[in-house]
Amino acid sequence: MATKLAATAIPFEHYFSIDDEACDQRIAEAKQKLGDDLVILGHHYQRNEVFKHADYSGDSLKLSRNAAESDAQYIVFCGVHFMAEVADILSRPDQIAILPDMAAGCSMADMANRVNVDRAWQEMSEVLDPDEMITPITYINSAADLKSFCGKHGGIVCTSTNAPHVLDWAFAQREKVLFFPDQHLGRNTGYKMGIPLEEMVVWDFDKPLGGLTPEALKKAKIILWKGFCSVHQMFQPQQIDNFLEKYPETKV
Length: 252
What we know:
Blueprint: H1 12-16, H2 20-34, E1 38-43, H3 48-51, E2 56-58, H4 60-69, E3 74-78, H5 81-90, E4 96-98, H6 114-124, H7 130-133, E5 134-139, H8 144-152, E6 156-158, H9 163-173, E7 176-180, H10 183-192, E8 200-203, H11 214-219, E9 222-225, H12 237-246
Parallel strand pairs: 1-2, 1-3, 3-4, 5-6, 5-7, 7-9, 8-9
């Protein structure tokens, strides 16, 4: 899956020396000059200094759809790499997706890459036939080449909202699912669908056969990639308990 993200060398040191007011003025002038040829997308997680310049705001998929439906030739995505890739995939051939910082990434998305997923698929083939038995699913918060991998192997892409429907579809195709990169989304969705925890295993890409025995792999209904959001990992049960003790009226 080829993408056409624009990469331009920008002398960051030069921009660091510009104060906020001057920077805002330059952005406003550029937007006025380009007019409808430019659309700026601001993800919810952006700082207000960036967010205020956005023509559209929201989550990454919604923003990509907004951009694809616009008349703009240039799409500036103020977000991380996979978000700009989604905008590039959904946009027309004449539109150019631009990521201001090509190094902007997501730690969770980076936990699954094409090399490791290809190797995992190959290792699984030593125990069973993955193309006959496993449907690969990647969360939309992942690299474009992983979405391509799923397409190549009869799989699919999901969002956090439609994950249950996607899992239903996947199990209608084959008996097992490989879910990446977010193990928690895969596990929690599967559990709510009635899949026992003992039928879900974690594939550790740093270990031979994912750290699993052939028997565990054969028994598993869902194979979860060892990936996670580092921010979500910081939440602890005692933090919730402490908050509820102080504010018992709170709904979690």
